[in-house]
Amino acid sequence: MLKKLALAGALVVGAGGMGFWALTAPAPIDPARLAALPEGNAGRGEVMFWAGGCASCHAAPGASGQDKLKLGGGLRLETPFGVFVAPNISPDIEAGIGSWTLPDFANAMLAGISPEGEHYYPAFPYTSYARMKDQDISDLFAFLKTLEPVQGATPGHELAFPFTLRRGLGLWKLMYLDPGPAVVLQRIDEQLQRGQYLVEGPGHCGECHTPRDMAGGLKLDQWLAGAKAPTGEGTIPNITGGEGGIGEWSAADIAYYLESGFTPSYDSVGGEMVAVQENMARLTAEDREAIAAYLKAIPAHAQGQ
């Protein structure tokens, strides 16, 4: 009888383990959808490149000018879970993504899955990129392929157990990977729709400006309310109209700040926002105005923590 109970218990544990293993398996995009991806346009892809701030993480730290287009990686991102190192995404065959196909790139951007079938850590903001349009993904890939290959792989991430176990990220994705909008706007027009897309998708503004829970997921009920800096030092500002935010800024003020780096009080952009503002300055005036309109339309929150 004891042997039978032990066997039954083992089967239950084994079935539970198998269920967890299946539940957390990487779920690639439907191959039919990937096969239908349109051919990319590098010119349009450059817009997505700057909107997404790709150079801010993947160019060498401190790079400027044309060196921003050399995407050899190496930036260290300090978080409560460990240090993540931005990889080489140049077209280099050995160290970068030169051997990738468009489906490889789409799975990485939209589902957080590597060409080897492993989960990517969400330090790579695919939870935002999941909201991007297939055409924009294809265009961005086309642009990246035009850039200069950079030799040399970056060091690995510096993580402690259990964060070294990527399979558990499948459960995290079930909780937090959602291609739906971060907020529901009270009204919507073409400009607001464009602004929402740029901020919530390629711009991935919420990844820094929204507080996170203990598991590292975004608290969408405090969308863009600001947060503690991941390094534990300082605060990322509130960019809603709530207390401690930018409620006194007009849409024109926001658009001008994104273009010039100057606030309504004639202060200048500083810190990590410098690179973001420089990227935004490369967008069209219409896109910056759309971003400003969206930020004026979202729910107001007090400074997040």
UniProtKB/TrEMBL annotation:
Transmembrane segments: none annotated. It comes from the Bacteria. Keywords: Heme, Iron, Metal-binding. The keyword Protein transport does not apply. Coiled coil: none annotated. InterPro entries: Cyt_c-like_dom, Cyt_c-like_dom_sf, Cytochrome_c-type_DH. Residues 40-148, 190-299 form the Cytochrome c domain. The keyword Iron applies. SUPFAM superfamilies: Cytochrome c. This is Cytochrome c.
